[in-house]
Queue: 2 jobs
Job 1
Amino acid sequence: MTTNDSAGPAGRETANARDTTRLEAFSDGVFAIAITLLIIEIRPPHLADGEGSPELLQALLALWPAYLGYLISFLTIGIMWINHHHIFGFIARTDPWLVALNTLFLLCVAFIPFPTAVLAEYLGHPGQQVAALAYGGWFTVTAIAYNLLWRYPTYRRRLIAPDVPQASLDEVHRRFNFGPVIYLVATLLALFNPVLSLGVQLVLAIVYLIPYRGGGRAPEPA
Amino acid sequence: MTTNDSAGPAGRETANARDTTRLEAFSDGVFAIAITLLIIEIRPPHLADGEGSPELLQALLALWPAYLGYLISFLTIGIMWINHHHIFGFIARTDPWLVALNTLFLLCVAFIPFPTAVLAEYLGHPGQQVAALAYGGWFTVTAIAYNLLWRYPTYRRRLIAPDVPQASLDEVHRRFNFGPVIYLVATLLALFNPVLSLGVQLVLAIVYLIPYRGGGRAPEPA
Amino acid sequence: MTTNDSAGPAGRETANARDTTRLEAFSDGVFAIAITLLIIEIRPPHLADGEGSPELLQALLALWPAYLGYLISFLTIGIMWINHHHIFGFIARTDPWLVALNTLFLLCVAFIPFPTAVLAEYLGHPGQQVAALAYGGWFTVTAIAYNLLWRYPTYRRRLIAPDVPQASLDEVHRRFNFGPVIYLVATLLALFNPVLSLGVQLVLAIVYLIPYRGGGRAPEPA
Amino acid sequence: MTTNDSAGPAGRETANARDTTRLEAFSDGVFAIAITLLIIEIRPPHLADGEGSPELLQALLALWPAYLGYLISFLTIGIMWINHHHIFGFIARTDPWLVALNTLFLLCVAFIPFPTAVLAEYLGHPGQQVAALAYGGWFTVTAIAYNLLWRYPTYRRRLIAPDVPQASLDEVHRRFNFGPVIYLVATLLALFNPVLSLGVQLVLAIVYLIPYRGGGRAPEPA
């Protein structure tokens, strides 16, 4: 981040480059805050009078849906951050539409703590089906927003640096095409079994986080 | 951000440039945190004994004022961030008054989650009129603080880089003049219809976010 | 922030410079988060059945202690951030003690939302005296921690860049000497009148924020 | 942070260097947020009708477990931040596994506010033993995750800059080997005396923060 005293034609070019940097830095901030805020939705359990360590242990273990939600949401936001970093490596400059689409995408990411909190409260209790559908459904929406953010700058290589090989873009295209579909399928599983739906999402997050093929980055859904 | 070992006259110049950078980075941090904190004001609904998925679905839908408040506040803070970025591109250096006015403006931005939470709780319920007036009123106050932040460095081009064309400043002047007026009008609408007032603010936020005229940035109220 | 591949003697120098940068960036993050977290201590008021807009208006106005606490704490943390920026402009490199003292100081800053929340709940109610004493007392403690953070690098110019004029340091010395004393006096006023004590702290914050003498920075207590 | 328009073979090298920078910046964000979020787990005490300053003072003092937890967690996260900074000074480039292990480690760090909140609520009350075991146990888990993050890039100097002396790595190896063991021992002390266990963890945090041997950094457990 450098301050640019010039606003002439050359300055505009620099300003554009700076746009990308500051856009990435702002996005990183939102990612970092959303991922760290997840924890404040998990509240310490309360004991009744006369209860002690055994009951506290049981109450802490009974919070497993909250831990599971934290784990899946943390990994998923983490993967989204990694991908955001990855795709902005291809983008040479910003324009107002890219900024608008990025804002829309961040709106989705920053919302994630809410369905996570709903899931933590209802998984394993009556209402868990709707909680799991809302949780997976929101990730599906977020994956669609992520696709828009990726499609716009790559359409006719609108904002892509000239020396980025088309093959690199196509590889990301293929991965991003799968994202909303995979999330939708995982979400619909909740109609039959909410815990299974969550389990699939956890496995997906772990699979996407773990690299494969000698240093290459694993495909990610969104 | 570079560490500056020199504090001599030349060092002062560099320090001033660094001021802008660190001021922008600090402001970005406050923007990013305020925008992401909005979500923690939305709490999961609670069900009574014997209630399940249908009631949870209904309870989640009944939170629409919270979602609407989140949407408007997120977009509005996002637009303010974009504009902040934009106007600091014209500012060549800081001085203590600019820092003070920026602090005042950030104080307004960081306060936004509170009227948003009030709105989320009262829209659609008794008290919604005051909630909507407080919500819109605070954006009006924030728009005024934003105008002060913009008027000070541009007055007689006090802190403006020499090569910034006056036309660029005048264009922002025109837009910023409208900000407090538009917000005030939208706020006063709440006297007649609180939901309409919110609807207008949502439309404004979307209009300001969506770019127009081939890559140009849309006019923004604040 | 640049990644430094070298860890030899020359690399150490660079690493030290980078230390200052990353220490400042981390501190900025804590400042920005602490200042923005203040708002979540203010909760929307709750109405009884049958109450509406007039009662909500009254309930919002009755939260004035919360607004006052937000205002004072925001301005004070803002001033501390400005000063932190200012004094690190003189510091050429870090060492482990500086990092430790900076951590201790940030611990004090990050704690501020708690006494602010206590003040918001008790000012104007029974217990307000202890709340005001705790509030002012914590700022006194923070001012002392800030003095330690400033005294250590300046003692015999231990970590100060060679070309910083001694007069610049002496000026900060004079200001920092006053800090804990002023806060202590303002705190003890709460023994007689808690609201007066808060009023003095608000005036102090405004005085310190407003620049004076043609572009110079106002003296700050801590 | 510089925007890199090139994505050719040379660009890849630069991209890797940028990876480290952005990975560090993102990690710094998570550290700064987690450390600052600790405070919102401490809530103002509530008084009964007719109670005033003496009862508030007593209630504030009765929150000592919350202050102790804040102190230990803040210092420990602070030390982890310092160490993170330190070890990334040795790492020349990232790869997907390093990113994955760093995400896992940050997941542990961002979780710390929860066991801290449990400790604050139960220390000095029935259930304190489980609370102290959970608290220390989580730091043990975090120390293990930190070891994984350190072992991976240093194994056969996989991602280490060539000019980093092996002795520097070995020194960190020795320190990191102790981390999980020390935390495990401190945790198990809670089986006999929860307060003693916490006291040991506080002493450890202070010892690790305070530098020794003329400017050298103290050994740290994790």
Note: Chain D touches chain C through 53 residues (CB under 8 Å).
Job 2
Amino acid sequence: MTRAFQAKKLDEAIALALARVEPISETETLPTTDSCSRVLAEDILCPEDVPGFARSAMDGYAVRASETHGASRERPVLLKIIGSVEMGQDPRTLPAVHAGEACEIPTGGPLPDGADAVVMLEETERQNDQLVRLFAEVTPGTHVLSADSDFRRGELVFKAGHKLRAVDIGALLAMGILSVTVYRRVRVGLISTGSELVEAEQPIRPGQVRQINSHILRHLLESQGAQAISLGIVPDDREKLRATVQRAVRESDLVLLSGGSSVGARDWTLELLQELGEVLVHGLQIKPGKPTIFAVVDTKPVIGLPGNPVSCVLVFEKFVRPVLARRSGLRVLLPAHRLASAQLTQTVPSALGREDFVAIRLRLDESFGRLYAEPVLGHSNNISTLARADGILHVPSELEEIPEGTHVWVELL
Amino acid sequence: MTRAFQAKKLDEAIALALARVEPISETETLPTTDSCSRVLAEDILCPEDVPGFARSAMDGYAVRASETHGASRERPVLLKIIGSVEMGQDPRTLPAVHAGEACEIPTGGPLPDGADAVVMLEETERQNDQLVRLFAEVTPGTHVLSADSDFRRGELVFKAGHKLRAVDIGALLAMGILSVTVYRRVRVGLISTGSELVEAEQPIRPGQVRQINSHILRHLLESQGAQAISLGIVPDDREKLRATVQRAVRESDLVLLSGGSSVGARDWTLELLQELGEVLVHGLQIKPGKPTIFAVVDTKPVIGLPGNPVSCVLVFEKFVRPVLARRSGLRVLLPAHRLASAQLTQTVPSALGREDFVAIRLRLDESFGRLYAEPVLGHSNNISTLARADGILHVPSELEEIPEGTHVWVELL
């Protein structure tokens, strides 16, 4: 009854999964200031020109450019000072600049009517309170930022599917957009399986292990803007697992099962997902992380993660993250990581045809200011392997080893 | 009265600042599950061996290694099956394994008394319900994870000053550590200066500009685990600025002033900080971001950021971030960034002796799967420059340009 699966390359598995994952459809409208890290569910068109008035890019004098024709150090042009622009002043309250006139203006100050250019302070000299000498010729627009220099009315600023960053909150507020419609947070159901597991706050006796994967996953999910729903620990019991998976599929948008490290439990999970839905991936050509399952149950993605914590975290980072991004409504997932460059202190062996991920501790040699990458020798059963590591080194499937001394990029945890 | 300052190299300015910044001293004790991204204020010693019992690393049979001497496919060793270990079973309830005996065991199952090794399933064959043939010789400890294989009682697992990551929460819970003492969040006072500024939710008229920097800074600070305290907008008025800076220094651990783009306001900020405390840096040899001030007032760091949003964000990322990390109690700040590798679509000019930071839009060529880096041509006065960008390209001070076609690392916003 168990269909035979072949372990898939990571990229191939991600493509297969993404082809079956839809963005969630529900949205919510939030104050712009509360929408950082959320995914836009609407295109944002700029409602007005920003800043909405022409302003000076320099401290200097607002003039009519035509008046400065031929001005130089040797042949300055003399203009009458008709006033001084204050920061924030309504330009409609300023006197217009006519032929033969100049108005003092600070950087960011609104350009008075009549003026079409600014001569920077360094190119001027005041003759007295009423007259200024200009040493440079300017053309219309010199040192002037137009009324739509920041954003133009009607411009498409952000597309739906864009994840709002801190600077984007600034951009939205600059346009006067005080609320936005975003996808609601993706709800991710977390199930831990294994008769050996107890909740971390419970007393423990020999033979039992504290359940930690769902706590780690919760923090990783929250850092991605998702909401974790814990469905607790399910012992190695087929009917309980079935009921919990069905409940998770009903109550969440994406389900992560972790554990089932014994052969029996692994098989049950696979059989159960085949029975409840469709299994698309069983096995990844990566180490650690091979025993990964991707299934779709009632249109919801269900991912079976390896039970040991190192593999669980690795598969989350490499496989769950793109699936979650797509489900969250993200249009583009940039191939970017938090990286540090470091030099390998020992050769890292690998196997051809398999992507390896190796835990790395970084050591800073303070006297040389150089960063060294030391492989952490630890079993992937052990959370200590990650606790002792700063990051992960990727060994591509085409390499048999990365030699000692190589400068590598380490992806930080 | 204004002391002459020379613009400093970024690295030099950071070193000068860090020499004067102390970690905050106040701590708080939190449930471990609420302490992700917080900075430990205590060393963490492991209180007990983890997992606390010897367990199998494989599905197979627990045996006395000495019994397997000489076993091979040709000359299997026959042992009596005395039982089967269940996941989570208390090893004290298991029958001891004596000479001539084997006990079935799953991956993660507790090793019964007497057994000192595991023969993996693939190296065995069951003769009948009571007897198993072993095809491989094992030595004591083979496929066994010891009681302290994950963490050893008394081991120093994390040092004070370590920022807790998701995997570290898992490690703490695995050790049964349910609460930790962390530094309290750093409170950062935010002051925006400029008579042209109005709060974003207020009506605006020509000449005025919506205040956005403190909103951007708030989100950047929160992503670093700090708490932002907004002290509002101060018009270009010396006495109001003085009172607000004094209040900010009293109420927060670090003060960020942004704005004062007019010459007058810039000078006031400098003079005021010289009067209230000590100015250590005035001017950075970077573009954008030159008009940056670092001062210490009543032992608190006060940083004057440029008013235009691009420079403000840049100086936050490059200069404020390490200062904030030190103030937060962080012991080590890894030189890591979220990076994407891309190919430059046009030459980026720069100036020798100055570090340039250029806004970059990334474009994915879907047919070639290649990422291109396009410089965003925008004024640093304009938040749109960052809204249109995906990241920032760093041009070191030794370079006059980075040529078109170069593969560069882009630091994502």
Note: The two ends of chain A are 39 Å apart (CA to CA).
